[in-house]
Amino acid sequence: MGLPEGERDGRLDGKVAILTGAAGGIGRAVVRRYVAEGAKVVAVDVADTVHRLGDELGDSVLPMVADVRSWEDNQAVAAAARERWGRIDVFVGNAGITDAARPLEEIPGPQLTPAFEELFGVNVLALMLGVRASLDDLIAARGSIILTGSFAGANAAGGGVLYTASKHAVLGLVRQLAYELAPDVRVNGVAPGVAPTRLRGTAALGQGASDSVLDGTRAALPLQEVPDPEAYSGVFALLASADGEAMTGSMLTADSGLSIRGIARPGGRVRRPADG
């Protein structure tokens, strides 16, 4: 569960954040949590449904429709944050697309290059563009960068070949940027497992949006529950706040125990149907 409605501790008071992939799922939940904690947020998404956040949260949110793969759009987002609130303290690179777990052998050769460019453009290049556009402000504020990774960033079978490779790249970005920007900017990531949301697919592979939770997922998780998107918001709030000031270069795993799942059963105390 996220922060209860109307409750906040103000640990992000005065901070200005840019958050991409804000229109739904974890991104939307983090925007709501940041506002509840006192932050102002530029909420960015390619979908115009991002404007609903402005309707819901009022003047604390500036919704913007943008293509995160565009340098010009990232510049415009950073400029909007400066114009509205005069600073940028936090950049959250959360936008991402999936390959619907497509294996390499099922991707026709002529489609591989455009699919790679599309997926890596959103999942990797966009993170670098967003950070670069906000970098001077983040250094001046001694701010924080948070990138959304994945269970697939350290494991196989969390996606297809393109998605898994892209999320491994995000882990590399977190570590390299943490080194390059220390001591002025902290850089960390969050690696979710599953959340009930719809992910946009890779158009070059003919994919539309699809549900991120497959049948049987709940039973496969050691914690035996599929978390709501709000369950992840506190981790993002921690990393943006003074409570995370000793952390940089870390990828925090929030995968409901998926990476420690057992072979015989998902968790040591999980009862199997045959156990009665």
Automatic annotation (TrEMBL):
Under the heading PROSITE patterns, the entry gives: ADH_SHORT
Membrane spanning residue stretches: none
Q: Which Pfam families does the entry link to?
A: adh_short_C2
Q: Name one GO molecular function term.
A: oxidoreductase activity, acting on NAD(P)H, oxygen as acceptor
* Keyword set, alphabetical order: Oxidoreductase
- Family as reported in the entry's similarity comment: Belongs to the short-chain dehydrogenases/reductases (SDR) family.
Q: What is this protein called?
A: SDR family oxidoreductase
Source organism (scientific name): Pseudonocardia petroleophila
